Amino acid sequence: MKQLLERVSKIGYEKPRVAVALLPLSLFSFLYLLGTLNAPPEWKGALGGLMVCYLTAFLALASEWFWARWFASGLGWSGSVVAVAAMVMTGWNPVLAVYGALHAIVVVMLLGPRMAARYDLQPGWRERFGMDEYGVIRLRKAVTRAAAALPSVIVWALGPREGDGSIASLIVGVCLAVLGLHGLLRLRTWGLLALGGAAVAVLVGGASGYPWPRDMFEAGIPLTGYEPVRLVMSSATSAAALALLLIAAVSPFARGALRYVRTGR
C-alpha cells in the first residue's frame, strides 16, 4: 500500500485527474436530484441534502477552491466505507460495489502532493489566514473528517423515522455540522464548537436507534448505497461511532485550544 501511494503521488496529469474525479460527483448530484424530485415525501429532505453535498463538492473542485480536495475526499471516503461495511454485513451487492468504486475513484484521483499544490497549497488563502504547513495539515484533517461524517448525519437526521423520537436533536446536529464546516473554512473557533455540538446532538438523537419504515429499494430511489446503512444505524453504538468521527474532526485543534486556554497564547 505504501509503494502504491508513493507511485500515485508521483503521477502528474492534474487536470485530467480532476476531470475524472468530477464525473462521479456530477453523477451523484444528478441522481440525488432525481431522487429528491421523485422519491416519497419522507425521503426528499435526506436526498436533497445529499444532492447539495455532492453538488458543493463538484462546484468547489471545478472552481479550484482551496478546500475542495479535502471536502470531496471526505465524501469519497464516506461512500467507500459505507459500501464496504454494507457488503461485509449483507454480502456481495453489485450496486454497492459500483457505489463504493465510484467514491474510491474520487479519493484516488485527488491523492498526491501535486494535487495538494493545486488546491490546499495555494499561496493566496494561506497568506490571508496566516497558515503555516502544520496549520494546513490540521485544517485538512478536520475538514476531511467532518465532510466524511456529513452524509451520514444528513441521512440520519432527515431520513424517514417512525414516531417523534429525537428528531429535533438530529436536525440540530446536521445544522451544527454544516455550520461547523463553514466555521472551519473561515478559521473560526465557533466552527469547532459547532462540530462538538453536532457530536453531542447525534449521541442524544441516536440513543433510540434509527428505525427506517421501508427499504430505499421499495421506495424506488436510484443507486441505493445508503439502504444497508439502516443495519449500521440501528443502535446507539453506531451513533457513538458517528459522534466519534465528528469529534475526530475537532481533535487536530484540541491541543492548540487547550494551550490557549491555559497560557493565553
Short synopsis of the structure:
Helices cover 77% and strands 0% of the residues.
Mean pLDDT: 79
Tell how many strands the DSSP assignment holds. Answer: 0
* Low-pLDDT segments, ≥5 res: 209-235
Compute the gyration radius: what is it?
Answer: 18 Å
Principal-axis shape equals: globular
List the topology elements.
Layout: H1 2-9, H2 14-38, H3 41-63, H4 68-90, H5 94-109, H6 113-118, H7 123-129, H8 133-158, H9 167-185, H10 189-205, H11 216-219, H12 229-232, H13 236-250, H14 254-263
Helix pairs in contact: 2-3, 2-5, 3-4, 3-8, 4-5, 4-8, 8-9, 8-13, 9-10, 10-13
Task: Write out key terms for the chains shown.
265 residues, mainly alpha, 77% helix
Could you describe the 3D structure shown?
- The chain is mostly helical.
- Helix content is 77%, strand content 0%.
- It is built from 14 helices and no strands.
- The longest helix is centred in the middle third of the chain and has 26 residues, at 133-158.
- The radius of gyration is 18 Å and the shape is globular.
